[in-house]
Write a structure and sequence with these properties.
About 75% of the residues lie in helices and about 5% in strands. The protein is mostly helical. The longest helix is centred in the C-terminal third of the chain and has 58 residues.
Length: about 400
């Protein structure tokens, strides 16, 4: 649905303005006539409904998954307590700590007051905050009259996703810190410390050893052209980001990432844990299996695994079981295929997917821990070797002069 703003005259002759959701401008006109309004102007609203000053002031402040999980859990509790939707949104807006989310909730609240449409239609205006799984579950809960229960399950899903993502991010903070610190130390040595030895080496009036000559040359280049090096790094990063936005390139990279010796299995386990939990949440909320597969595929981050979902949907539509369709992709481990087959045979697919999610979350955490334990000493050895090589190249000509004097 699209969002339309209108200006109309009521049956009493009062001028009214507001917004409503509709598939077309003609349908919007019919809706207005149906409530006794005579439309003067109807036009489609381009862009998010929440384009308010408060939202624009906080445009670069994102809505974290943890913020969304808290918001969803509180909404479920208030609706379960019997509060109307508008009053629930008003309460949540007043206590919302995230400024951007507060602006979005305020815009949704005003949209529902003016249009009186379903919550899922209002959420469609913010796909950057509410992903297809979130919107699909809300729509399913509205249609089945179980919105509070669905929101409670959705809050658990968001909390689990945030916890898994937090474990991965927090595990790699220290290795990234080591890498940044080591690169900074090497840059400072090459641009500020090594040039001070150049006059000393020139006073020796001897040919420098090749490691020292190379070191002096690199140091001189960095001292004179450090700005060009930084520009080159930023340019390369920009080109890489632009290339990653192309689906064909991103698909090739994601496929190669899954084949890496240590990090490939880690990425696969994290993605399977996320996919299986999302799929289980959708099925537990009463979403049909094909719609659940579509929504789950939309949230997959690795394009190689995301590309398997159209094949799964096509296979199930042709009469295959989900286990058979998964097996044909040759991308999912045998454990995934066998557990899903067992769930289909016993009629407990959502429960088996939840169990699969728990298994792979534990495996992902173990794999991430192992990868970090391997990465940390490797970085320390690498950075230490580079710095030791710089120090050795500086000391080498001094030792040679001392040896010549002693002889």
């Amino acid at each position: 649905m699209s969002r339309f703003s209108y200006t109309a005259v009521s049956a009493r002759g009062e001028r009214k303005s507001g917004t409503l959701h509709s598939h077309s401008s003609q349908e919007a006109v019919l809706k207005l006539l149906g409530i006794g309004y005579h439309p003067i102007a109807v036009r489609q609203v381009r862009g998010p409904a929440g384009a308010r000053s408060g939202l624009f002031q906080n445009w670069f402040r994102g809505v974290r998954v943890t913020d969304l999980a808290v918001f969803t859990r509180q909404m479920a509790s208030l609706l379960k307590a019997g509060l109307p939707m508008i009053q629930t949104l008003t309460t949540l807006r007043r206590q919302c700590a995230n400024a951007r989310l507060r602006g979005i909730v305020e815009a949704i609240e005003e949209s529902l007051m003016q249009d009186a449409g379903p919550l899922s239609d209002a959420l469609d205006e913010y796909p950057q905050v509410f992903d297809p799984v979130y919107r699909g579950l809300v729509r399913s809960g509205e249609e089945g009259g179980t919105l509070a229960e669905v929101l409670a399950n959705l809050a658990k899903h968001l909390g689990q996703s945030a916890r898994l993502r937090g474990q991965v991010v927090s595990a790699f903070i220290y290795p990234i810190f080591l890498l940044v610190l080591g690169v900074t130390a090497i840059f400072v040595l090459m641009t500020f410390v090594i040039p001070r030895f150049e006059d000393l080496f020139a006073s020796f009036k001897q040919d420098l050893p090749w490691p020292t000559a190379v070191l002096i040359g690199v140091s001189g280049f960095l001292t004179s052209w450090w700005w060009a090096v930084l520009m080159g790094v930023f340019l390369a990063a920009g080109l890489l980001l632009a290339a990653l936005r192309r689906r064909t390139i991103r698909l090739k990279i994601d496929r190669r990432l899954l084949r890496l010796p240590i990090f490939g299995p880690m990425l696969q386990k994290v993605e399977i844990a996320r996919i299986s939990h999302t799929f289980a949440t959708l099925l537990n909320s009463g979403v049909p299996i094909l719609d659940a597969l579509r929504s789950t595929g939309d949230t997959a981050r690795n394009l190689a695994m995301k590309a398997t979902f159209p094949e799964l949907i096509k296979g199930i539509s042709a009469g295959q079981t989900l286990g058979e369709a998964l097996d044909k992709t040759a991308l999912y481990p045998p454990l995934v295929v066998n557990l899903i087959r067992t769930g289909e045979d016993t009629g407990e697919l959502p429960e088996m997917l939840s169990e699969l999610s728990s298994i792979y979350e534990e495996e992902a955490e173990r794999t991430v821990t192992g990868a970090v334990k391997l990465l940390e000493p490797l970085l320390i050895v690498l950075m230490g070797s580079v710095i030791a090589g710089i120090v050795a190249a500086v000391i080498l000509p001094i030792f040679r002069i001392n040896a010549m004097v002693a002889s």
